[in-house]
Structure formats: structure tokens, C-alpha cells
Amino acid sequence: MRRYHPVLTAAAIRVSNHWGTGSPDEIDDVVQEIYLKLCAGQARILTGFEETRPEAVFGYLKVVATNTARDYFRKRSATKRQVAQTLSLDEMGDVAAPGNEIERQLTLAELHKLLLTHTQTETGERDRGIFVLYYRHGMTAQAISRLPGVGLGPKGVEGVLQRLTKAIRQTIAKAQESGGN
């Protein structure tokens, strides 16, 4: 603990300053969460690590600590947003999405139609699934890439999300321009 505690604490501080308040209590909570993660499952994370060189363990622990800290803040943020109370797209079909000063608000049903329009390819069903998992369920690109049937790495998932988001935004912008004239 004496050797690796500074690495874990530094990761907690960095992530806490970026995602949270950076307060000492918050950092202590994040460090505690990191230790819990390292000890979970009979320390599976630590015992499963195969050391290729002596200093590799520092990098490994830094990555584990950083990812655990980010997960801590994502979970806390999801709790604040009451993600568990999210309705399905079908249930919210006519609810207007938030927007700026536009004449016609885009509803979730319209968003779904746009998503269908931009995914008329042989990978369309997969791409729609990725979009929903990311934007509606809050999954990360890495988590989505690990799901069976996705067949893409994290960068591939990010590429799908970027392509669909850009296409939908361009369609919305064109609709707003033509509606405002």
C-alpha cells in the first residue's frame, strides 16, 4: 500500500478535479472506491495481471484507478439524473426534446425516424442499437464494443456514433433553415 497509494491517489485527484469538485472528502471516497475495486473478487484484477517488466504495474494500476474513478463519477451522475426512471422511446413518443429558439421542436419519435433514415444499410440495426445504448442507456463505447454481436472495437463504436450524430444534426439544421425561411 505504501508503494502504490500515491499512484492511486494521484489518479483519484486528477479525475476528481475534472469530473467532480476535487474536495478532500470526494477524493477520499474515490480512493476508497479504487481500493474496493482492486480487492473485489478475491483481488482478481491484481492476481490476473501478468507483469512484463517491473515498472509495468505502476501503469496498470494508474489505468485501473483512473477508469474506476471515472466510473464512480458516471454512476454518481446517473443517480442524480435518475436514470433508473428513464422511459422508453415508445412511451415518450410525443414529448418534445429540449432545443433552442426553433419553431418546431424535434420529438423523440422524430429522432427515431431520423435514426431509421440514416441507418438503411446492412449494419443499420447494429448501428441503431449502438446509438440507443450510448445516448439512452449511457453505456461507454468500450462497454458497447464488448457486447456480443457488435463486432467493433471502441474506436469503431465511436465512429458509428460520430457518423450518426453528425448526419442527424445536419438533417435537423437543414430542417430548421428551411422552416425558418
Tally of separate domains: 2
The number of helices is 7
- Overall average pLDDT: 78
Question: Could you name the ranges where pLDDT drops below 50 across 5 or more consecutive residues?
Answer: 84-106
> Could you say which overall geometry the principal axes of the C-alpha atoms support?
elongated
The largest β sheet comes out as: none
Radius of gyration from the CA trace? 21 Å
Order of helices and strands: HHHHHHH
Strand % is: under 5%
Helix content: 55-70%
Distance N terminus to C terminus?
66 Å
Write the layout of secondary structure elements.
Blueprint: H1 5-19, H2 24-47, H3 56-80, H4 108-117, H5 124-135, H6 141-145, H7 154-180
Helix pairs in contact: 1-2, 1-3, 2-3, 5-7
TL;DR of this structure?
The model is unreliable at 84-106 (pLDDT under 50). This protein is mainly alpha-helical and 181 residues long. It has helices spanning 5-19, 24-47, 56-80, 108-117, 124-135, 141-145, 154-180.
Walk me through the structure:
With 181 residues, this protein is mostly helical. The protein contains seven helices and no strands. It has two domains: 79 residues, no CATH class; 73 residues. The longest helix has 27 residues. It starts with a helix and ends with a helix. Helix 2 crosses helix 3.
Task: Please tag this protein with its features.
2 domains, elongated, mainly alpha, 181 residues
